[in-house]
Amino acid sequence: MRIAILSRNKHLYSTRRLIEVGEERGHEMHVLDPLRCYMNINAKEPEIHMRGVELPQFDAVIPRIGASVTFYGTAVLRQFEMMGTYPLNESVAISRSRDKLRSLQLLSRKGIGLPVTGFASKPSDIPDLIDMVGGAPLVIKLLEGTQGIGVVLAETRKAAESVIEAFMGLNAHFMVQEYIKEAGGADIRCFVIGDKVIAAMKRQAKPGEFRSNLHRGGSATLVKLSPAERSTAVKAAKTMGLNVAGVDLLRSNHGPLVMEVNSSPGLEGIESATDKDVATQIITFIEKNAKQHKTRTKGRG
């Protein structure tokens, strides 16, 4: 097959692994920077061009679209879908998962466990907003933040009020969540492909830090999941419409809670912690499922 990887950097670990495995399995792999792609949108023959040349037809496309280029990246992916290329993750599903508030609302509608979350726009609502999530300590998250950036743990009510007022003063969009103390600064990254969790790792925050992101100095170890954690992760990925997802769970006293569903989960941390060949399982999934015009939304939405 001819497979495109939408990635801004062909030297990133995840991109390199997918190229390596794809070529080993006899596929023609191409890395395309989504920001260098531009589109001819028409009713008869939609096209994608790059550096003055029309791109050939691809059998499948693997989106590795960074959060900072979500709007343009998903537009390019949608054009591939309209041309009949099979997307590993669809543009609509990626857009859903990138909108933190929308994704939580969709998960809550399906009855999936979540930290209690509040959202407001007026300073007068702050006292009730804090009470709504159980009071301090609580977590305040910028909706545009990634990799732990823009996430604040407010340990007192006064601190929470100050941070919320500051974010409102900057016209920043944010949400307030209950702090799951029993998680102990750890979360579980479940790597979902299709209808299975194929690998999982526990990410532990470094001492004095509550954010467990590996980019922030957290450590990763192999973890055994409970049946409830497995089913929650798979259900969360399906709710977003993602074939491949990194679902981040917190272990709470009332069961697994979904923190976030990531549509472009990195491979380095999970492969290192679990010693599993995740890249091969991704390419194998494409081999089994890729068909022309096999996109649920056909580029709509």
Keywords:
single chain; 301 residues; alpha+beta; Rossmann fold; Dna Ligase, domain 1; D-amino Acid Aminotransferase, Chain A, domain 1; 3 domains; globular
What does this structure look like?
Helix 2 links the parallel strand 6 and strand 7. This protein has helices at 13-24, 70-82, 91-98, 100-109, 126-132, 157-169, 227-240, 268-274, 278-289, and strands at residues 2-6, 28-32, 37-40, 47-50, 53-54, 60-63, 86-87, 117-118, 138-142, 151-154, 174-178, 186-193, 196-204, 219-222, 244-252, 255-262. The radius of gyration is 20 Å and the shape is globular. The model has no long low-confidence stretch (mean pLDDT 91). The longest helix has 14 residues, at 227-240. The chain folds into three domains: 2-95, 3-Layer(aba) Sandwich (Rossmann fold); 117-179, ATP-grasp fold, A domain (Dna Ligase, domain 1), CATH 3.30.1490; 182-284, 2-Layer Sandwich (D-amino Acid Aminotransferase, Chain A, domain 1). Helix 1 crosses helix 9 and helix 2 (70-82) packs antiparallel against helix 3. 32% of the residues lie in helices and 27% in strands. It is α+β, with helices and mostly antiparallel strands and 301 residues long.
Quick synopsis:
The chain is 32% helix and 27% strand.
CATH architecture of the largest domain: 2-Layer Sandwich
Number of domains: 3
Biggest β-sheet: count, sense, barrel?
5 strands, antiparallel
- Chain-averaged pLDDT: 91
Number of helices: 9
Tell me which oligomeric state these chains represent.
single chain
pLDDT < 50 runs, ≥5 residues = none
CATH class of the largest domain, anyone? Answer: Alpha Beta
Number of strands: 16
Return Rg in Å.
20 Å
Shape: globular
